[in-house]
Amino acid sequence: MRFRLLVAIAICALGLAACRGEGSTAGCPSAEPAGTPIAAPVMAFLSAARALHHEADMHEKSGDAPGAIGALERLVALQAPQAAEVNEVLADAHARLAELRLGRGDLEGADRDVGAGLHRVQGPTYFRGHLLEVQGLVEEARAASLSDAGRADEAARARARAMALLEEAVRTQEQVIERALADGGQP
User: Fold this and answer.
1) pTM above the 0.90 mark?
2) Terminal-residue alpha carbon distance, the chain
3) What number of other Cβ atoms are within 10 A of residue 81's Cβ?
């Protein structure tokens, strides 16, 4: 289910491992002198994140959404070293938590998770765009709930917020694509 995220975590881990070697450390976070293992806390965090996402996957496969939520809550509660990769993993975990909570009808919890994730990532990134998409889905669900309750005006406002958020998500992802293509396809 979260294959894309697990691949991203593995790529980050491999990239950080490459920073440990001899020679240039350009582009390596918290680069230390050559030959010295660097960013061990980041590597440990990414490993723990991968394990907790796998645990959440196992819970989801068995129909245990509360168990999946519990695993992801453990992830977002981990002591987190300062690194862009860590913020991205946490933002993605918050998006996944929001989706799980949304599936259970917990709109307020989903809203809180999206907000916490958005706090982690600034500027146009894939992760921010995904969080905006999930926030749009939360507003869409809110619109449906309000409509079912006979609150047509509030439902229309929530629907409009959902549309605006989904459009913002698209614009963010377009910026990510444009930047990558301008850099020769590199992230």
Assistant:
1) no
2) 23
3) 17
